[in-house]
Amino acid sequence: MNHINHGRRKWLSLGGIVLGATLLPNTVLAAVSTPKPRILNFRNINTGEKLGAEFALGRGFSTNTLRLLDHFLRDKRTNQVHKMDPQLFTKFYRVQQQLGLRNTEIQIICGYRSAASNAAMHRRSHGVASNSYHIRGQAIDFRIDGVPLATLRDSVQSLQNGGVGYYPRSNFIHMDTGPVRTWNGS
Fold this sequence. Notes:
Layout: H1 6-22, H2 26-33, E1 38-44, E2 50-56, E3 60-61, H3 63-72, H4 87-98, E4 105-110, H5 115-124, E5 139-143, H6 149-158, E6 163-167, E7 172-176, E8 181-184
Parallel strand pairs: 1-4, 6-8
Antiparallel strand pairs: 1-2, 2-3, 4-5, 5-7, 6-7
């Protein structure tokens, strides 16, 4: 009588859990098992356009959402559209998570830049790289209202993934998916 069958107790406990779960309404089970979509809200300060982009872990972005983002981040000077690296958007979400932000508007200063636009900017400023990652669709310049620029820089740098430029006088952060490196601009 004093002998306890631990194996039997584990099976009885598991059975109770399964039975209890079957009594829950399906809507509760769906809410628990379905990952919440990730939402990124953007505003292009050059065009005034706004875009909310939704994606899910493991599935990424829909083809349609990626096309919308490519158009949204087009070259403001030529209206040329280029395929943007989806890893940029994953980085935005990770930064928002680190900073405890949710549904925050990300202000886009510059996304894709055509080779001609980049060359013209490079001639006017030594701060513009001649072979910028913007030309490849692998860079975005941005800011988030209410978040100090240095805090934003530190968050992006902590990802240890790509380049991070800090431009306090121009009030933006450059983020790209190239090699890990950092620099300070004007």
